[in-house]
Design a protein that fits this description.
Layout (H helix, E strand, L loop, with lengths): L6 H8 L3 H8 L7 H14 L5 H8 L4 E6 L5 H16 L3 E6 L4 H13 L4 E5 L5 H8 L4 E4 L10 E5 L1 H14 L5 E5 L4 H16 L7 E4 L7 H10 L4 E4 L2 H13 L9 E6 L12 E4 L2 H16 L7 E4 L2 E3 L5
Parallel strand pairs: 1-2, 1-3, 3-4, 4-5, 5-11, 6-7, 6-8, 8-9, 9-10
Antiparallel strand pairs: 10-12
Length: 327
């Protein structure tokens, strides 16, 4: 295997010092433009690439952000990452992305790997990591949680969506449209799911519908979605508020298989307002989390930490409802 070219190799070919090569490739204003261009051409000819990690050990900065997401399956995560990447680029930072396929152990290993690479900051878009693991990582590098953890973790900033408000927006819209029996499809005990369930139940009570609250829990071991929906439809439920867009698509799919009309027979509201919501038929009414803004705010909070801020910041953004054909 051919050895990887080094700064010394570039300097020898250019007939200059290694330090001058380093300054030129960093874009230091003290290096003349013609000299910098000549050194860059030689570096390209040799195939030299800067060793970011080695430079980071010297400078104390790698200009890398690590991003951890639960899974690539849900567009909610990837759309937040898009916001992170755009904001990071504006600050001269690059992004390393890892995902855990909804495996807690794998997520923890990835978090350890990123801290071991001396990234300048971490954005965690997952509620699957244990608080102790997050706190340990935050002691090594600034860390921002996007989305909910069960409780604030000392030393960690967060950017969250007001999920209880989002659920209320969905229920209010369905009731205003004349729907009198609204079921909620949820998905377990994670913080965002619990907040959306609380918001749903509170809104139903506010509308005098507490006696027809119906929660379909898709947690492992719970009833099959199809069976639970069949039972709800048999009992006269004419609307479903789903915990996210992916679950809403599953509801619509089952309704169409049963010959139901959406929204005439069953109105459906999702959550996240992902790109998929605009590409289905019927197009999906969904609660819009400002995902790209959440990603951008996470980067802003990391930059503040790198600038010396030490107090914890917890931002809560307001969702909106995007009404489409499914209601």
């Amino acid at each position: 295997m051919t050895p990887r070219p080094t700064l010394r190799d570039v300097a020898a070919r250019a007939g200059v010092s290694k330090s001058l090569v380093s300054l030129a490739l960093r874009g230091d204003p003290g290096v003349g433009e013609r000299t910098r261009e000549r050194i860059q051409v030689i570096a390209d000819e040799l195939g030299y690439r800067s060793n970011v990690l080695a430079r980071g050990l010297v400078q104390g900065r790698t200009h890398l952000l690590g991003v951890v997401i639960s899974s690539l399956e849900n567009p909610y995560h990837t759309e937040i990452v898009a916001g992170v990447e755009e904001a990071a680029e504006a600050h001269g930072l690059s992004v390393l992305l890892v995902h855990g396929s909804r495996d807690r152990g794998r997520l923890a290993q990835h978090l350890d790997t990123l801290t071991g690479l001396n990234v300048d900051g971490l954005v965690v878009i997952s509620s699957w990591l244990e608080d102790e693991h997050l706190a340990a990582a935050a002691r090594r590098t600034p860390l921002v949680m996007v989305g909910r953890s069960h409780a604030p973790v000392q030393g960690i900033d967060s950017v969250t969506n007001d999920d209880e408000l989002g659920a209320a927006l969905a229920v209010d819209h369905l009731v205003a449209a004349g729907r009198t029996r609204v079921a909620h499809v949820t998905g377990g005990r994670r913080p965002a799911a619990l907040a959306r369930r609380r918001g749903y139940e509170a809104a139903m009570s506010r509308h005098g519908l507490a006696d027809v609250v119906r929660v379909v829990d898709r947690s492992p071991g719970g009833p099959a979605l199809q069976d639970a929906l069949d039972e709800a439809i048999h009992d006269g439920y004419d609307a479903v508020f789903a915990r996210n867009d992916v679950a809403a698509f599953d509801v619509i799919d089952h309704a169409l298989d049963r010959g139901l009309r959406v929204p005439a027979d069953l109105a459906v509201v999702g959550y996240d307002d992902s790109a998929l919501a605009r590409r289905t038929r019927p197009r999906l009414t969904s609660v819009n989390q400002p995902r790209e803004r959440m990603g951008a705010r996470a980067v802003a909070l990391l930059v503040e930490r790198l600038g010396g801020r030490t107090d914890d910041q917890h931002e809560v953004l307001r969702p909106t409802l995007t009404v489409r054909a499914s209601t």
